[in-house]
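Technical note accompanying the year-one report. For the benefit of new consortium partners, we illustrate the data format agreed upon in the data management plan: each record pairs a sequence with a structure-token string. No post-processing was applied to the example shown here.
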Amino acid sequence: MKKLLFFVLLLTSINLFAQEVKVTGNITDAATGKPVSGASISVKGKLTGTTTDSKGNYTLSANKLKLPFTIVISAVGFEVQESQVTSASNNISVKLTQKAIVLDEVVSSATRINQSILQSPVSIEKMSLKAIKDNPSFTFYDGLQSVKGIESVTSSLTYKQINTRGFNSTGNSRFLQLVDGVDNQTPGLNFSVGNLFGASDIDIESVEVIPGAASALYGPVAFNGLLSLKTKDPFKYQGLTLQVKSGLNHFGESVVKPQGLYDFAARYAKAFNDKFAFKINASYLTGRDWYADNYTDVSASTPAAQRGPNNPGRDALNIYGDEVTKTLPGIGLVSRTGYEEKDLMNYNVYSLKLNGALQYRFSNNLEAIYQYNYGRGTASYTGSSRFDLNNFVLQTHRVELKGSNFFIRGYSVEENSHDSYNTRSLAQFINRDWVKDLNGNTVTPDKADDTWFTRYAAAFNGSVSGVTPNSNSAARAFADQGRFLPGTPEFNAAKDASIHNYGLSGAGVFSNSKFYHAEGQYDFTSAIKVFELLAGGSFRDYRMFTNGSLFDDKDKRVTIKEYGSFVQAAKKLFDDNLKLTASLRYDKNENFKGSFTPRFSAVYTVDKTSNFRASYQTGFRNPTPVDQFIHLNVGPITILGGAPNNSKGLNVYENSFTSSSVSAFGAAFGKAVQSGTPFPQAVEQNKGLLQKASVAYIKPEQQKAFELGYKGLIMDKLLIDLNYYHSSYNNFILNTVVIQPSNPILGADGQVTTASATDIPNGKVHAFQLYTNAPDKVSAQGASAGLTYLLNGGYAVGGNATLSVFNLRNANPNNIAAFNTPKWSTNATFGNSNVINDFGFNAAWHWQTAYDWYGTFNGTRPGRVDAYSLVDLQFSKKLPKLQSTIKLGGSNIFNNKVYQSYGSPAIGAIYYVSIVFDDLLK
């Protein structure tokens, strides 16, 4: 009630001291005299604003606004201008000056308030609306690879993962992606699936990237950085926009001929009386996915010199089912015959995005928003296996109340995994559906693998009439009799049955998980005036549901609650040349101790366009819901999340042996028994080798980082951006295996009990894979440099380079997350949107050095990612009379076959043509 009374009094005071103001005018191009359609006219410091029509005319109704005030006029490709409104009726017509690129951008992510990018206290990159429109890549999201400091990994045509400053992965839970302030991660996967469920190219206004720890302002997910996507406001961007894009990929491939790609998008926005506005978006992208067809033999049990297509124990990287192996007496290691990924994965991928928003302005400084996003798509994802996110759905609802100095926002994120599945498991299950014994009878799935190896051994040893003995190929052919061949009705039926069977008995992935999030912030600066002060807080509630397929949630709920708050203060000193900023955030997850994450920064301004900066930043990452609550019994081992409540009643953390000590005991016990030592005595003699496991419950990862930088604009032509950082990390989340006996492991004297040691040879034990943290500390450092230069005639050239160095120190490599980052990465761009007669072009080149990729897909063993370069190029022609732009271009135009992570597909060229109709029905 107090808050409501406050707002009523505030609105009443505005009515008393303000009046209705109406501003009209015309906006034209100073160089050509032509009207500028779609120019934005907004009241400085307020929410009120409008846009020009196709003739450059506008009307701005600023009801109850106190005179005088300033309006800001901006448009893509032009310099921003300001004009003062001094009377209730004004006609303000402005001629805008063309600008190929505005180098002094305004950003908001660095400090959560608007400021010049030149004076940001930390490194920040921005892709503006003009950069998005001129992007030569197939989509704007693909074009992020040209941004300084960005690392990208492609798992699928519809799924690209973004990261900064090392510790890259195909599913990055250390990097936060926001779309209009909404966390875009899927609740079950715990990371954003690229732009599969994001926003279409024609609705994106800008993209901002913070490389490095951003937890001080954005909480636990922003451990490695932040990607913030902002869509177009329907008050500012009105009318109908249509995009039709068609392309081809799969050039020069032996398995598949060139295939069509299609991308359709439509956006319509309308404002009524500057009070109510809405927008609707629809986009659909579809095509044939990249093929993962690296058949390198990666068998860990076969010496490197003996690996290859003729290895009986072959384990090919992108063939699945051949991971099932057995060492046969007199023969050696043999693997089952697997299926190629192309026969298991759904390569007909698509991304459907539907979006709608309603916005209502109560006053010049109070606006309500409701936004709904529906995303559905198919993508391939490289994790511990290659997963098919098939018809996966992500929905978000967002409600927000905001003013110029505050916002209150609430949203929900809900997923439905639908027909998603694990291709590796799928191949193994199909392989168990058709095996016959030596009498010709089909065996049950639980006996299929052993029976197949029995058939193989019998054929190899000459026990099968008509089969050449001592021949691995002949033995395999005999063992494979009755095998379901890809494309046959039997194969398709077995595949479909396994995909829709969840848990241990099938390959299906089931999740209907969701989370609810509420946050708000308030800028007290205008009230305090002596210094800047910003404060905010957030609350999140995870509600997981996998129906027992991943969590122990068949009969009970798995929920996680976490909250956080922050305060940020800033003060300018020495004639406003030095700005000091301090931030402090506190976060608490119900399963862990609270974490404080401070950030301190200083920006020294030599002049308005030359700034030096220094900062100390901290970051932390809470364990994901899977890290905390996975409870999956896979037979000989149970995978158990590290939250204390997840192991309640199991006594596993308190009563278990280290796996290494059990191995040592088993070897010594076996040797003693073989030498004639009686069983009880052999146990007693060697039980001292057993060690009690001391595994801590899981806790957040930690990071500390220092950064120095410079950003300057020389003669309004040359932008220079330099930075160096050093980060240290500890408490990396990892897995460890322990062995739990049936009996208590320690007696009253603190020594290992005979009963627990006896459990081991008697098989009365169970293995657990526990989530915990490593005590090891590591560090990383890096530097980047970027230059952008505006040439005469509207040409712009840019380049950047990033150095990333990892220092393992004295840490155990098995305890540390993989760095997975090239030492050197470089980009160069060159373009002009209007060379002559509305013809333009833009080119981007990317190159990076080779490095070893470590991931769970290959059992954390290294796989080489070779050095590569990519060139993207587009030519454009504007057709003003048709209010359209035609673009002809290509991504990776030289068709280099590029692997961006080991086990993922090779990425080739995409050649495309597109046409965009803009400002229709305005």
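Partners are asked to follow this layout when depositing records. The longest strand covers residues 366-382.
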